[in-house]
Amino acid sequence: MSEFSSEWLDLREQADARARSADITNAVSAHFALRDEVHVLDLASGTGANLRATASLLPRRQAWTLVDHDAALLATAKKRLASWADTFETEGEALQMRKDGCEIAVTFTVADLAIETAALLDKPWHLVTASAFFDLASETYIRSLAKILAARRTPLYAALTYNGLRRWIPHRPADNQMAAAFHRHQMRDKGFGNAAGPLAASVLGDQFRLHGYTVLEGDSSWRLERGERMLIEELVRTHAVAVSEIGGVEDKTILDWVKVPRTGTLVGHTDTFAVPGLEQSSFD
């Protein structure tokens, strides 16, 4: 699933890559260090940014399946990945790539994750991963995913789950009112039932712990400054649109808030790596 344009995903990709928790990326790399190859399922893959950010952490031979409900985004992902690779070949709809010494096979699957995730997980994956996805999913979806992965003892690497922290520079009195309304909007149905929104990171960790996983969490907040004006302005715009749609904030308050020239913002995210049987893993 993705409800975002390729332009928005491109705009945020550099900030996402920079924000990822080094502690979590190191943990992912250590966990798979002794494997020769890995098969990865990437949920809500968009334009393939998660593969580009994660491939260097994994063994030399990799097979990725990228899943999104938007066929156009997957087509864009194929183009972006081919451009990113050192060399590539196409095999029908699939890609065979080389990048920094890694051999990466990529297939692309159009699917509605709200109803097809269980079927997708019915294969022997070494890792399931997603980026900036679980705040759009419902608590019920997260609970079901954790149950299925636990039955298969499959690790999960979830990057950049929004955690509700948001600060604007300069701060204005209406910021808190706007944030509260934004969160109400975010917790509406995004295709999975009412979304977990800013609670998603904590729900994710709790559900996997209930299944005996060891859950590692790391801060991956955006800390944007003047040089990222375009991204800041787009965040302001989308924030205001969401608040206007949900109601509860006067139009004048929204308009005045939008007019404030922002020089920076902090947007809270959490990276999560959930691993079964960690006491016997490479983290010992």
Amino-to-carboxy terminus distance: 36 Å
Mean pLDDT level: 93
The number of distinct helices, counting runs of at least 4 residues, comes to 10
- Helix percent reads 40-55%
What is the count of structural domains? 1
Question: Strand tally, please?
Answer: 10
For CATH, the homologous superfamily is named as Vaccinia Virus protein VP39
CATH topology: Rossmann fold
The description of the largest β-sheet is: 10 strands, mixed
Order of helices and strands: HHEHEHEEEHEHEHHEEHHE
CATH class: Alpha Beta
Which outline best applies? Answer: globular
Poorly predicted ranges (pLDDT <50, ≥5 residues)?
Answer: 278-284
Radius of gyration: 19 Å
Strand content: 25-35%
CATH architecture: 3-Layer(aba) Sandwich
Secondary structure class reads alpha/beta
What is the topology?
Layout: H1 6-19, H2 22-31, E1 37-43, H3 49-54, E2 61-68, H4 71-84, E3 87-91, E4 94-99, E5 102-110, H5 113-120, E6 127-131, H6 139-152, E7 156-169, H7 175-186, H8 200-210, E8 213-219, E9 222-224, H9 229-246, H10 251-259, E10 264-276
Parallel strand pairs: 1-2, 1-6, 2-5, 6-7
Antiparallel strand pairs: 3-4, 4-5, 7-10, 8-10, 9-10
List its traits:
10-stranded mixed beta sheet; 284 residues; Rossmann fold; globular; 10 helices; disordered C terminus
Summarize the structure.
The chain contains 10 helices and 10 strands. By secondary structure, it is an alpha/beta fold. Helix 7 packs across helix 9.
